[in-house]
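User: Second chain of the day. Same drill as before.
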Amino acid sequence: MWPVLILLALIAVNIAATGVDFIVPSVNDDGRLGGAFVNILRRSAPLLLIALGMTLVIATKGIDLSVGAVYAIGAAIACQTIIDAPDQTAGGLVLGAVALALAATAVIGAWNGVMVAHFGIQPIVATLVLMIAGRGIAQLVTGGQIPKVQDSSPFTELGRGAFLTVPIPIWIAALVLTALALLTRRTALGMLLESVGGNPEASRLAGIRSRGITVLVYLVCGLCAGLAGLIGAANLGSADANNGGLWIELDAILAVVIGGTALLGGRFFLLGTAIGVVIIGTLEDTIINVGLSSQWQFTAKAIVVFAVALLQSPEFRGWALRPLRRRPEAPAPAEAEEVAS
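Assistant: Same format as last time:
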């Protein structure tokens, strides 16, 4: 409830600052949906994909700091594969490059899971290693250059195209969200994830393959990061190994926290994560629309996260509402006898 109220408040501030056109979508000359809020959703699609994978990892009491580097690796593999081919517009080439990038990022995610589940390395340490080395791997793939795929229209459509007037990145993010929600809430997988996050040892003793589930969620997280990198590279028409997805892992963790997922594991909310992503995207536009400097961006994010965390805390709400719940003082003995008579 609280993230939704925060989002509605941000939308109200933007409507007051820029008018109702902020929330009302429009149709561009090319037949695609546009408008400020639609653009926020389109730009937030890569972050949403990464945040969804991060949610599953955090649900198992883990963390993945390497998603930004995996983002860069996926983009580098796809773009470099396309520019090395004689015909960049071939549909089969683009599909092969996308498949190769997704397979590589899934393997990288699974490697993180193996380090955590089978070798007992702390998640923050295991993924921090790849966070540092991953961008070096991306630079090796691209030879230290920035491969540009402006001539490959099938690939760039992944980030700039539209289907039924709705931008393709929004479609991809919505489909992944729906698939993960159905998989975790309509099957036993969600309960198993929360069980492993709540108490891995007890889950193992109960017969749950906690190690396999841990590897699986890291694999999914790597896959989501790779897909986000493909969308980002397709939108820009290039892959920047140094700056692609830089610090996106921090925004993903912020979105997960805003959405109500417990960082200690055992509880997760995919829809809450999606709302957290939209809050972050809307907040970035709000800073500009109200006339503040872009330097306020990080401070504003911290304030919003702090406010949502306090509102979601039962202890804080109980303390804040305590004066309203005070019982009326008991009447004095003389007053009590008078009332009785």
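Strands lie at 26-27, 33-34, 162-163, 166-167.

User: Great, on to the next one.
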